[in-house]
Amino acid sequence: MKSLAWLVAAGLFMGVGAAQARDNIEIVGSSTVYPFSTTVAENYAKKTGNPAPKVESTGTGGGMKLFCSGAGVDTPDISNASRRIKESELETCKKNGINPVEVKVGYDGIAIANAKEAPTFTITRKELFLALAKEVPQEDGTLAPNKFTTWNEIDAKLPATKIEVLGPPPTSGTRDAFVEMVMHVGCKEFAWVKDLEKTDEKKFKAICESIREDGHYVEAGENDNLIVQKLQSNKDALGIFGFSFLDQNSDKVKGANVDGVEISFDSIAAGQYPVSRPLYMYVKKEHVGTVKGIEDFLAEFTSDAAWGDEGYLTDKGMIPMPTEERAKFAADAKALTALSGL
Amino acid sequence: MTNLTPPATSATTEKVKLGLQKRYSREKRFRWYGIISIVVSLFFLIVLLADITYKALPAFTHHYIQLDIDFNAEKLGISAQSTPEQLRRADYSILVNDALIKQFPNVTGRQEKRALKNIVSSNAPYRLQAMVLENPSLLGTKQAIWFLSNDDSDIYYKDGNERLKPYETQWLDTLKAEGRVDNRFNSTLFTNGDSREPEQAGILSALVGSFFTIALTLSLSFPIGLAAAIYLEEFSPKNNFWVDLIEVNINNLAAVPSIVFGLLGLAVFIQFFGVPRSTPLVGSLVLTLITLPTIIIASRAAIKSVPPSIREAALGLGASKVQTVFHHVVPLAMPGVLTGTIIGMAHALGETAPLLMIGMVAFIIDVPSNLTDPAAVLPVQIYLWADSPERAFVAKTSAAILILLVFLVCMNLLAVILRKRFERRW
Predict the structure, then answer these.
(1) For position B238, what pLDDT does the model report?
(2) Residue A194 dihedral angles phi and psi, to the nearest 5°
(3) Integer Cα distance of A74 and B208 in angstroms
(4) A74: contact with B, CB 8 A cutoff
(5) Which among A15, A31, A242 is the nearest to B281, CB-wise?
(6) Model ipTM over 0.90
(7) A23-108+277-335, what's its fold?
(8) pTM to 2 decimals?
């Protein structure tokens, strides 16, 4: 028992000692960027022989909070984000003496998909909004509870099947992106709601961001694989998930045609597919030189072998940026140009 | 003769006799209920295990592809005299590509060439790099080397893969016809850490992480829990307000959601004491807090159930209070204490929610070598794999669940053996 106590005490001291110096990079942030970040981490470790970076999937907001909490070595070096850094986050960062370097890494598409055997869905964002909104705006400027139960009630050209959409819960970044890129756009089709955005933003958000809770939208959890499985067994349902899952399961599910554009690697890369978002990573400039290997990691990430048109990240489902944009961000990463403002 | 039997007794006997049949059948029925519930739970257990095992089976084997590699020193721009750093920097993917092109000379077009490269795992060049670093005299020779196949190729060989294009399946069929494909035991699963490539992903870093975490949790929570239980049961003043307060709190703590302990760990251990994130050290500190109430409650019950005659006999023979407790009461209570510890440890082994807060839900490639290296644990590995888009991770997830179950069974077996040794009748 006595020796055990010593062992424990020794362990604690070792722990406190180790907090001072660190030779592995620490990365936190978005679960959407996680697969890409980990792939680069792995290749970086193999190429340089340095210890492999530790990548935590905390979600964009959680990652930013950790990243901006201080400049000491006990804070993460890189934060991944599936949206741009917020004004408030940048302020916190600067207040704590951190000047983040912004690197856009690529694009991600959000697929609206159904089973391979079912007919392809051709849908607009307005129709999606009408199908999923909690309350539907009327032409006379009032709101009515959403009464649509089958797709053809919204538009006669849509199938006569029950509206059933499997999607992520509110905690997910995919949900945020879906709300922003589909629901917002769809509800702005109503002129009076669009005007509301400037006059009463709170009400605008309440109308555009509330998703119905009467069983037509099913929160399927954070696990996108589960949604794919459920789509296979339920041919009438639609699912919402990241493009990489569609890409990996292209023999089981297929993407819907949104606003006249079919989801594909090329249509996202060309910026035609409407439901796609940029992905970022933020690098703590203050740690370069203190924590070993950050520059090498950035060089690996921004190399053509990784994020290029035919780089290994495209195999993982990331959509590369156009060449000029890549060149700009690669130069920023190399020179460690800090983000001055949004 | 009839009037010898008192009428009252006869009536009672009649009554008992009448009720007897009912009582027998009630007992029978109850036995059946018991058997049925055991059968039902066994059935579900078997279904669950069979499902997991069936899904996990493909993960335990993997297809290897043989390629003829020409270690052309000129193409690599190095020689046997080069420094290790130069050997490391060379681009070995050229060798793999050349071997593949030699195998399929008719492949033209960028798309096809790119697909051809993806037949074998992306670690093939690194494999060659390691071989050359170890033995530079390989340069200039030709070798037939078995490479891990890519996850898509492996799935095709196992049960067909509709994601592959016709020309890709044709290559794979050709390789198979030439005897260049072999299905082997997947040792990578047990010797590698996590990876984004399903064929290179292994469980070792999580297994070692779990081992460290559980070992430290046990060595912290067992002595603390037992000491607390002994004090509360044997030494603490009875009917004392503070003791009662502590008792109520311990019982309440057992029901607190584990995520709360995670938040506590983040605030106290990481932010206040500066224990490094994502390490088995901080993980086990948090898990200790979670398991302590279980161990204390079970230990107290076990100590209480030791007959007072044992204590009185020891005290009567002149043993001190401490001697009585440590020589007689604790050894007799040990089986019960161990039962509580098993339950607590099994709980700790399967926990993920609190670990999320302290950064243990992370991608870890390197196998941790001490308590302060970043580490993941088995349930976290299962969670991460279940969340990965690549198809091959489905089998890997089930395999990881099986490994977790085996780990749990081993742990419990050890505890049961220990308990048997301590068990004594009186």
Answers:
(1) 84
(2) -60, -40
(3) 24
(4) yes
(5) A15
(6) no
(7) D-Maltodextrin-Binding Protein; domain 2 (3.40.190)
(8) 0.83
